[in-house]
Design brief:
By secondary structure, the chain is α+β, with helices and mostly antiparallel strands. The chain is built from 6 helices and 5 strands. A hairpin with a 3-residue loop joins strand 2 and strand 3. The radius of gyration is 17 Å and the shape is globular.
Amino acid sequence: MMLDVYDYFKKMQDEQIILYFKGEITDSLLTSILQLIDDKLDKGAEDTKVKKKVFNILLECLQNIYNYYQHQDNDNPKYLSAVLMIKKSPEAYYVLTGNYMKANRIEKLQTRLDHVNSLDSQALKALYKEVLENTTEEPTSDTGGAGLGLIDIARKSGEKIDYHFDVIDDAYAFYSIQVKVVI
């Protein structure tokens, strides 16, 4: 399908990019990004609940990226790069993140994402409680956590998580998600 250039530019005018970042995620950078977004959301005229949802989803997305980096066994700086964008349209905020991951982890993550996306709000709540209750000292995710991040993102946004995997080579892929928070 051919992209209508007028519609594309109209859509771009209707959206406001609040933050765009590309680079390596560090502990101090996380703190700075979260403070910056908190300040920008406070200046907006949005409902407190919407601001809280956007902030909490951003926090969870950044924690997922950071936790992945802590468990990565590659020194190649190319694979330590991540992308973060927060944008606002008249009807919603969008939190977009992307990072490199081991290609052999795609199937497991995709299965998990599909499962989370298949659940309604009540089922997500039940799964969240189940994972919390069954958390032992043995981690359930590849990054050493309990695996609550994606469930929490879906619960807080009330929307499906839009995701994509771009295979780079036999060893790596680029994983991106977009989370919509309706205003």
